[in-house]
């Protein structure tokens, strides 16, 4: 434990994140009106009775929000988790066998890799959320990243930017630390077993390659606008389907939505839900704020399952 703690604190990302979470929590407790001074003193005294093994994400309420371009955030993935955002996206480039993370090739750096930004921190969080002790010896399932809703998986969208047939094997290999610990949602023997992390391939992800995986622990982001094109789209291959809101719907959020635009949203959502698939629209307007919120309201009313957000703070408070 001590060794693990030291390792964590030496990592810059963790340092920032732990600080933000713990300071935020302590401040909240101390400033709650009417709270007894002796409780505040207990907090200050660092009592071991106030913590438990999985308190790391204590009090964070998970929300169906997708963190678009997550790797642009000050602290990728951890910022999203701290706001209760359940879905994050990494653009990956397979170059010389290494997966680099960035929006375009010019943005890549040697140390921003899929391993360093996503896999390693995830393994560290999940090891914390799944302590091995006398209380968990018989546990058969794994806790997710959210302490108050441990059965909710984190959705990790992997947007393959380089050739799909070359990138998929690298992604599968990179996931091994999560796989071997039992943290990946897996379809095997005709059974979908949800675990702490559900990995979805998008971008250049090859559909045939995903379909051929057995057991399958990387899934496929199906085309929400074209689900009728294949009978293979089912939750065991594609738990989620997505489409470009700007291209297929286009309502700016200003003025009223047309009947045809609403009908298209409803058709897409129904095409997904009738197959047991969740619906996501990306490229929704980000500005002005009123327009963005009108679009989010419309999509939620029409049954969309994920809010796509660049501004996570705004989305998490929506
Ligand atoms: C809180 O507990 C940790 C671990 O037991 C210890 O290292 C640290 O010094 C304590 N902090 C305070 C303010 O008592
Ligand atoms: C890939 O390998 C080639 C040949 O060894 C090297 O010239 C190139 O810089 C490498 N590219 C990256 C991104 O590491
Ligand atoms: C990442 O790499 C750059 C240059 O390659 C270096 O300046 C920086 O300190 C590295 N950052 C971390 C967190 O290792
Ligand atoms: C784990 O299983 C063993 C054997 O059935 C049982 O004796 C023990 O009490 C269980 N432990 C817990 C924490 O459930
Ligand atoms: C990927 O592999 C599949 C099956 O081997 C092949 O049909 C497809 O054309 C390949 N795609 C690319 C972009 O090379
Ligand atoms: C799946 O089925 C095979 C053979 O039918 C069996 O050997 C294997 O243990 C099963 N795996 C799981 C996870 O149930
Ligand atoms: C898909 O098929 C269903 C059933 O035939 C139909 O109602 C729906 O409009 C189709 N979706 C699209 C996007 O064309």
Question: How would you explain this protein's 3D organization?
Answer:
With 318 residues, the chain is an alpha/beta fold. It folds into two domains: 10-44; 62-131 and 141-317, Alpha-Beta Barrel (TIM Barrel). The protein is 36% helix and 18% strand. It contains twelve helices and twelve strands. The chain has helices spanning 2-9, 12-31, 37-44, 78-82, 114-129, 164-174, 176-180, 207-211, 245-248, 259-273, 289-301, 312-317, and strands at residues 63-67, 85-95, 98-101, 154-160, 186-188, 191-193, 197-203, 219-220, 222-223, 240-244, 278-282, 307-309. The strands form three sheets. Strands 1, 2, 3, 4, 7, 8 and 12 form a seven-stranded mixed beta sheet that branches. Strands 9-10-11 form a three-stranded parallel beta sheet. The protein has a two-stranded antiparallel ribbon with strand order 5-6. The model is unreliable at 1-36 (pLDDT under 50). The protein binds 2-acetamido-2-deoxy-beta-D-glucopyranose (7 copies).
Name the descriptors.
disordered N terminus, globular, 12 strands, alpha/beta, TIM Barrel, 18% strand, single chain, seven-stranded mixed sheet, 12 helices, 318 residues, three-stranded parallel sheet, binds 2-acetamido-2-deoxy-beta-D-glucopyranose, 2 domains
């Amino acid at each position: 434990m001590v060794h693990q703690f030291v390792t964590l604190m030496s990592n810059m990302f963790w340092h920032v994140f732990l600080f933000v979470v713990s300071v935020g929590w302590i401040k909240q407790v101390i400033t709650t009106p009417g709270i007894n001074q002796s409780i505040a003193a207990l907090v200050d005294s660092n009592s071991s009775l106030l913590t438990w093994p999985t308190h790391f994400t204590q009090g964070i309420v998970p929300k169906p929000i997708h963190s678009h371009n997550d790797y642009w955030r000050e602290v990728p993935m951890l910022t999203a988790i701290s706001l209760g955002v359940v879905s994050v996206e990494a653009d990956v480039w397979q170059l010389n066998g290494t997966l680099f993370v960035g929006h375009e090739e010019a943005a890549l750096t040697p140390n921003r890799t899929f391993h360093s930004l996503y896999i390693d921190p995830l393994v560290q969080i999940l090891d914390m959320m799944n302590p091995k002790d006398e209380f968990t010896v018989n546990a058969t399932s794994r806790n997710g990243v959210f302490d108050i809703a441990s059965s909710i998986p984190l959705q990790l969208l992997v947007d393959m930017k380089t050739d799909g047939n070359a990138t998929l094997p690298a992604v599968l290999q990179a996931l091994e630390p999560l796989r071997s610990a039992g943290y990946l949602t897996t379809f095997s023997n005709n059974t979908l077993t949800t675990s702490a992390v559900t990995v979805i391939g998008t971008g250049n992800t090859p559909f045939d390659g995903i379909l051929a995986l057995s057991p399958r622990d990387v899934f496929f982001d199906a085309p929400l606008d074209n689900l009728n094109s294949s009978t293979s789209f089912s939750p065991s291959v594609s738990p989620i389907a997505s489409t470009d809101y700007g291209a297929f719907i286009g309502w700016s959020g200003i003025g009223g939505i047309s009947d045809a635009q609403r009908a298209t949203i409803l058709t897409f959502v129904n095409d997904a839900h009738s197959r047991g698939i969740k619906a996501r629209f990306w490229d929704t307007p980000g500005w002005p704020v009123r327009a963005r919120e009108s679009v989010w309201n419309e999509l939620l009313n029409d049954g969309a399952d994920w809010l796509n957000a660049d501004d996570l703070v705004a989305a998490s408070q929506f």
